[in-house]
Amino acid sequence: MVRPEDYLLLMFSMKGEGKRVDFKHVKEKMKRDLGISDEIQIKKILESLIKDGFLEEVEGLYGVTKKGREFFARRIKAIEAELRKVNEPWVIVYKAKQYYPVVANTILEFCRERYVGFYCLFTEKRFFRRDFRGRKITVNSLKDLMFYVNMHYIDIIPCVHRIGSNRPDWLVVDIDAGPKVSWEQTKEVTEIVFKIFKKFGLNPALKFSGSRGFQVWSLIEEFPLPENYKPLELRGKTIREKNYFSLFSDFIRIIQREVDKEIPGLTTCEVAAKEKRLDKVLLDPSSMKPLGLVRAPYGLHSKTGLISMPLSLKELKEFEPEQARVELVVERYKRRGNEFILKPSNPSKLIQTLI
Question: How far apart, in whole angstroms, are the C-alpha atoms of residue 126 and residue 186?
């Protein structure tokens, strides 16, 4: 059972520095989440927190003190599970606001010179945004990043190509398991994909998706579009345009065919008909398109609150999603720094296989 005092400290600590709210706002939230609507009871709780030095009231507006923030930062470790039952989005947003300043320098590496999308999280809704005030979003500094995070734009998804470019420079295989696929099978597919990248000389980098899958990335150096390349014919599709985006998505289809040789029938690149791949692992090529997006390394997944953290191949076998909790990733990052290193790769072997 969540104490009302803990609930209020979460609510106030989640808000930006100096942000204050009126009593009506407090009452609305306590009624919605805790079923408490008695004004006398709510005022007594507020007065108790003020007496303890955790909150302050200024001209009828309430806000958290430095002491209150520091107390709650320690307190949440013991009560997070209970708070999630009451308002999980608030907990995820609170943790995102504490987390991103720690990894900001690395996050910015993957956002610079690219358009960026976000999933935004509120108590009763989660939605996607890639535009703000009529313009595509860019994130080039800590100030930019925290401007959006403080508005609950917490799931950072940069574009696979640079602004103005006609080709991706990231080749990303998004490994997304259907609900009937076991965790061990998903990891098996991921290991095979990683080794296929290696075989093709693609210098793979591996990370957890933050949910039920993984991603294998490669940084592809510039190369001319092969003259004799013809986009693969896809079931139910019209003739595809010959360009770099078609080529990169076909790279993923070639990789899936290689995986199928190792474990026949388990993987697919068919994004449509989700009900037909409940027992399949999707190697998703859909981000390989103009303005295609992928979750940033070290990004926080807005549904789970877990981090899309880098892994070595050796770590994959024993990896469990709980290892991607914010506090564990912060500890690891402070010890090791950025572990998601992309080295330029030549796709010539992959092109030869395709053509």
Answer: 26
Q: Average pLDDT, stretch 304-311? A: 98
pTM beyond 0.90: yes
Please tell me the least confidently modeled range out of 122-136, 267-281, 304-318. 267-281
**4's tokens:** 């009302």
How far CA 24 is from CA of 4, 39, 123, 141, 229, in Å, comes to: 16, 10, 18, 36, 64
Question: For the residues 134-140, what does the mean pLDDT come to?
Answer: 97
CA 153/CA 155 separation, integer angstroms: 6
Q: For residue 178, what is the domain's CATH number? A: 3.90.920.10
End position of a domain, from candidates 64, 86, 108: 86
Other CB atoms within 10 A of residue 108 CB: 17
**Angle between helix 4-14 and 66-109 (nearest 10):** 50
Q: For residue 319, give the nearest of 192, 174, 218, 214 by alpha carbon.
A: 214
Residues 216-273 pLDDT 10s = 999 999 999 999 999 998 876 678 899 999 999 999 999 999 999 999 999 998 877 7
Is 118:77 a contact under the CB 8 Å cutoff?
A: no
Task: Identify whether 334 is part of a domain.
Answer: no
DSSP states along 181-232: S-HHHHHHHHHHHHHHHHHTT---EEEE-SSS-EEEEEEEPP-PPPTT--PP
Question: pLDDT value at position 234?
Answer: 84
Tell me: the pLDDT tens digits for 153-205?
A: 999 999 999 999 999 999 999 999 999 999 999 999 999 999 999 999 999 99
Domain boundary among 36, 66, 86: 86
Residue with tokens 């009560």: 79
Q: Residue 300: helix, strand or coil by DSSP?
A: strand
Domain that holds residue 25: 4-86
Element (H, E) at 117: strand 116-122
189 and 282 together in one domain? yes
Q: How much is the pLDDT for 237?
A: 66
Is 9 within a domain? yes
Conformation bin of residue 272: beta by default, left when phi > 0, alpha when psi is -120 to 50: beta
Query: DSSP labels for 314-337?
Result: HHHTT--GGGG-HHHHHHHHHHH-
